[in-house]
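Lesson 9: reading folded outputs for more than one chain in a single document. The general rule is that every protein is listed as its sequence immediately followed by its structure tokens, and records are never interleaved. Here is the first one.
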Amino acid sequence: MSKPQKRLYIQMFSIHGLLRYENPELGRDADTGGQTIYVLEEALELSKREEVKRVDLFTRCIRDKSVSEDYANPIERVNDKFRIVRIQCGGTRYMRKELLWPYLDEFVDKTVQFIKKEGRSPDIIHGHYADGGYVGMHLSRFFGTPFIFTGHSLGIDKKKKLLDEGLKEEVIDKKLKINHRIHIEETIIKNTNLVITSTKQEIKKQYNLYANNTIAKYSVIPPGINIDTFYPYYHNQVSSFTREEEGLQAQAFAMEDLNRFFIHPEKPLILSLCRPDKRKNISGLIHVFGEDKELQTIANLAIYAGIRKDILEKEETEKDVLIEMLLLLDKYDLYGKMAIPKKHDFLHMVPELYRIAAASGGVFVNAALNEPFGITLIEASSCGLPIVATKNGGPQDIVENCKNGILVDPNNRKEIAKAIKAIISDHDKWVNYSKSGRMQAKSIYTWQAHAQKYMSEITSLAAHIGKTGFRKRYASVPIGKRLTMLESFLFTDIDNTLIGNGNSRAIETLLKLLDTNRDKTGFGVATGRTIDSTLTILKEYDIPIPDIIISSVGAEIYYGEDLLLDTGWETHITNNWDREKIRNALSKFDFLEYQEEETQRKNKISYYLEDEKDRIAQIHHKLVKSKCRYNLLYSHGQFLDILPHRASKGKAIRYISYKWGVPLDKIVVSGDSGNDEEMLRGETLGVVVANYSNEMEKLKGLKNIYFSRKKFADGVIDGIVHYKFLEKTPC
């Protein structure tokens, strides 16, 4: 009998924008476009699969009076297997995606907490867009989980188009943080197990621009549509009595809304639906209609450019597009011939608009300068509405597959007008495009077909779950999974605490203790050494790489055998850190000797200071006067380390406690010198070994700090026994 296949837990990440299942606000702004409906429908369809245990779609939690309260709900249950999980990062106010980059590590940390609380780590992680990809990439490293990426749009391609439009690179980067985005995308492409694209064009024309493009594996899986929602227009004509009331109301409202614009509403309707984005080339379509009197005679034009209440309240780029629409309407005197409604309900009204246009014998137009995919083209075709679409991008695949319309050069107005008239004026051509579009959209572009291919791709990835994990002494599972299972932790300094005076026997005893209790207790070191120096000394004493290494006096945190750098910690501590400013401020103190380059780190400056006297006070005075933010540590009567003000061994341990959900009173820390002082204070269980430095005398008598009478590793063991910290002892 074959072993039952494990049902998969899929985590998806679509962080920016306003994301909810009921009545999604498509077109509200630049961040509520096609990606919104894509991820919702993909997650929903995957949740219907027997092979799937659960799908959680992670997005940002927003509490802002300017948006609906729905976006503040931490958990939105769509069905019994699909949830939208909202994680707070970067405060509570809604902000555009370009401003979220500094807060994504916070999103990673809080997702780790969510995973630990839930008690199950993901089997598949899927990041959407660069921000979701960044979060997904880091989580996949922690949990040894296959990582899928869908870019939706890519930074290099966008930057190139904006430069071609005449914008300067510094302006683009200031507004869109485009260079940072491109760097992140390069890293994601290098680390992903699978890139899912909607078209072949994405691979050839967009991903091919990246240096790491040949490293990734690609799969073209077109998005789908809900054929129960986007059904053919003629169903309305023969079976309206069976339709839901909401659909009938949406149809009536759409008709009423359009008719108030048109003198002759019976004419075929040229329909366009898109965001008010310059790249959508809305002005180009209006120019086409305004310059062609024949087209105005035979048809009406309706453009739904997002949702708006007051144009003046929109962002500058959207405002420019909307104002230009009004000016062109006036320039060509298109009153009575052109409609520019202010809003549309995606769930009910948009399908009705396609059917209204189809019933009129009209056409759907997407004249974008470039269209990565073009889901509206599939929706229109499914409703039986022929299309005219830009030849740049995904529509090439759609028209090739569906034979549902004509491709055009978006910069050639006469070509666009000719294509529209060719379809509207030729009944047989219109019928052929309508029929072929309906049939092929139903066959190729469904979410059921999408999910089927998706599952076939990830089955092979899921089969490798755990095989990339860690198989060493202290990590028999991927490090993230291990850390979420732990209930307690031992952190110890290395020099003169864990090692010293030839104490290999005591070290081996301590390691056996930890090995016996490894199911619940983790092992970490917190040292002033750099990561390279730490690895060298651990190897010299035959100490396996711990679960966590806090190195450079707390400036860096690494996890497991793969030495995964905690970028969340790095982001946290570098706030207001200016290394060069501090070096310049201290350059005139001849009593400071800059340590060797191999000891220096970008978030740590190290000096030798032999005779302290009042010199520490002078250093503090100089740095404060220079308005520097810093943390100064002095140890062993000779080592001076200056760190970011948020960094230290103690703060690093508190951060780890927060991130991985291990209470501070379940953490034993041991040390011997001044740079251990902060981690020994507070709620942790502190152990000071007998061979401690003089600066530790001030800690005597403090709560939760035990001064052992034994030295080095023997002192650490003594502290463990004192606190009755470990449940098991070696046989």
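And here is the second record, again sequence then tokens.
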Amino acid sequence: MLTVSKRLFLLFILITTGSFAALPPTDDFVRWPDINQVTISETGRYLAFATPSGREYFNLNITDLKTGQSEKYELQGFDIFDFDWIDEGRLLVRAYHPANHQQQIAIFDAAKGKITGYLMHEVVNMEVIDHLRRDPALFIANFPIARTWDTGRTGLAIISSNRSPSGISGVKDNRYMVKEWLTIPDGEYHGVDTDIEGELRLLLLYRDGKMIFLYRTGPEAPWQTLPFDHERTTIISYDQDPDYLYIGHYAPDSTTSTLHRYRVSTGEFGLALYSDPYYSMNDAWILKVRTGKGKVRNLALNYERDVRAQLPLDPEFAEVQKEINALLPGRLNIIYDCDKNLERFVVASTSGQDTSRYVVYTRKDKALMALPESRPWLKPQEASLMRPFRFTARDGLQLEGYLSLPAPRADGKKPPLIVNPHGGPWARDKWGFNTKVQFFTSRGYAVFQPNYRGSTGYNTAISKTDSFEFRKMHDDVTDGVHQLIKQGVVDGDHVAIFGGSFGGYLAVAGAAFEPDLYRCAVTFAGVFDWQQLIRQRWADSKYDKFNYDVLVEKLGDPKQQEARFEAMSPINHVAAIKCPVYVIHGKQDGTVNYKQSTKLLSELAAHNIPHEKLFFDTEYHGFSDRKHYREFLEAVETFLAKNL
């Protein structure tokens, strides 16, 4: 039911646009897509994908491309939220039961059309990392350090599905599945990586104040330390020869991150294979297929430019790209899965004004099989197009962002602007169809998404040099907004700022440090007091000393650098705010404690700043419940209608 303020806002939009066509409902931008997570088996026979269950997540669907038959599996009321192919015909399925909140990790056999084994029942405190190709029943798993109820043994182990009796009930400890505990060097665990055979190859440990890369060439080989700095080097892929790695590396004297084929035995980086002067290879990834035991074929280098780039590494793959692009002209066509013989390919195709349309390309027939549209209820002709936008920071740094414009107004006026900086800050916004952005452009707003300094995926000057200079990041956002206004495409007198997590920090920083720029600000799960966040990280340091140490190293000790913390924490500058602020948070947030938001509310009240609040008792650092996400968007829409 629409509130009075929503009805008035709707009437305003209809009058100013000169149209009385109903606005698309919020649910159109919230509901799950009709098809998702499309992936193909190694032989190319089976296609797996997810469709909405009507409960919380998805049902599993399998299409036999040989017979053309397709089946949907509801799995006894369990909702699928993730799955991966294990081998030629089996999937590892992660599922959740909405009624009793049990979780499962199961093995699903595509040929038999049923679950044939379980790796976990009921209680979640295990992460399945990969399947070991040497034995169909074996997997590598991590039992993480538990903060609450689970006091059993932790660490890495080889587990067996043969030790998991089907239909077991009431199990509180999944360690009965362990076949062998793995001995690893001492240190705070921060992840592992496996090769194409599922064997452990890489281990990240934090010890003695340093993140250590440990590597081994095979399951019986000793661990050896790689001379990498985790801030400057990323392992992108493994080579067939275990002595070689593909890495993205920011060299000390380089202006950008470069792709290298690194030789482990000699420590040689080798010649630069590829670099981009503006974008980084540290966030690149290689599309590859397993062609046989220990054999892998590298197909394409993928990385984010202003629009995603997919560069062929394999001549045959390059021909396939040409064939697909000829059949789907004028669209961005990204191949992200294929069979081992390069016969069938799964393609995500978009114009930028529609959600990616999944198609399967069969090379033998030179034919495309289109799968159902992801969101047929959203009409491309009514959607906005995300446009790359370059701008210059006050110190001359060239930055990038995206601008999405609504349909032109009937009265010819420029649209009001929502500035939407991303979280992180060590993340970035990417080009594509974004339902949150489309929601706001459908309501008549322009949306600006700036990739300020510290955003990942760019050259050294952008992504590395000032990666902890939070006030400079705020200044970058401000500079981008002023340049947009100067270009005359948006209404500079009607600007709002809206962000989550670090974007929530930037939203309140914008309101406090640029009090005459914004009409209102919306923050979700934001950080406003950096001293408080460091205290929270100290409390968590028993489990994660690395993140506490990094914050203290990069930002300083709050007791010794009070002036710096005072300057960058908007909680100390609330008195300067002139615009209304909407404060939103999930009370189960373990990343940013919701007391950041309650403290902000106290300061806003103390200084008589207009404000509203919305807290979710069962949400974390984001939204897991679609109903809550809908409530969130509608609340923000109402707030913007009143204030922007």
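What the second record shows: The CA atoms of residues 353 and 383 lie 5 Å apart.
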